[in-house]
Amino acid sequence: MLTKNYLDFSRALEAGITAAHAAAAILQAYAHNRSDLIIDHKSSNDLVSQADREAEEAILEHLTKLTPEFGIVAEETGGKPTGAATWYIDPLDGTTNFLHGIPHYAVSLGLIAHAGTQLQPGTPVLTRDTPIVAVVYDPCREELFTAIYQEGARLNGERIYCSASQSLADSILGTGVPFRDFSFADQYMPTFDAAIHTTRGIRRLGAAALDLAWIACGRFDAYWEMGLAPWDVAAGTLLVREAGGQAEDMYGIDPWPVKGYVAAANRQVFPELMAMLKPHLTAPTLKKE
Q1: 90 CB burial (10 A radius; 0-12, 13-18, 19+)
Q2: Rounded to whole angstroms, how far apart are CA atoms 267 and 289?
Q3: Dihedral sign, CA of 126, 3, 131, 220?
Q4: CA–CA separation, 162 and 153 (whole Å)
Q5: What is the DSSP string of 197-248?
Q6: What is the pLDDT of residues 156-185, one digit of tens each?
């Protein structure tokens, strides 16, 4: 919400939490009756069900009521960045897991303040888009990850921090392999091969928002993925940053991984992660929206 033309972070966070819980209630109701779901194919290996759509409708209903001054960009209904800040919404991150009965998926909402916005009195105007509020809710574990810009990250209200791992050799990495868009496979596959030989192990769990949340709470030490959408990473980027880590566009072009090419780790491991990735990166392969 806006107070004297400044952003009220706490009110925005409350709105995001309310919306996330409403969406999760719908998802969990459908999770017990998956055989009744109507599933559509947006493209090869790109699935959507009425659970996604109804969860998104619930989020939109709450956010348009509670934070009408903010823009909304949502996975199923679209939208454009507008106003001082924009919500990026994924009503069901991990749709394939959900549809197969794998209990690893989340609701993800990230609020991005736009360049030119002054967040608080006496602070400089933002020179670039900046994640400022994050909500990632895992309804299967009842884990609520939240963050506010410059106020830290939390899991169910308790402060969380990235791991203390000092090197890739001692790190568990999360990732996501190409499964729908293979235009970046020639970049990704060499990075996967490098990680196999230089880390403690790799996990591919199928929900980017939770991968980033798990970086923030120290379960993963580092994470990289290509070809995601902005709503996959908006909230998770802030969680990692507020937990003391780095989450960046792996090409070093955008202020946050809005084009879906994300590298994240604690601050000790991040330089080594980027050194592993960079030799295999070419010109950005932009995902079609």
Answers
A1: buried
A2: 31
A3: positive
A4: 10
A5: HHSSEEE--S-HHHHHHHHHTTS-SEEEE-S--HHHHHHHHHHHHHTTEEEE
A6: 999 999 999 999 999 999 999 987 778 889
In the β-sheet with 201-203, what is the strand arrangement from edge to edge? 201-203, 172-176, 222-225, 262-266, 245-249
The DSSP secondary-structure symbol of 287 reads P
What are the C-alpha distances in Å from 133 to residues 25, 81, 179?
Answer: 22, 15, 30
CB atoms within 10 A of CB 66: 16
Backbone angles phi, psi at 73, to 5 degrees: -120, 115
Digit-coded pLDDT (tens) for 43-82: 443 445 788 889 999 999 999 999 999 999 998 888 999 9
Other beta carbons less than 10 A from residue 199's beta carbon: 22
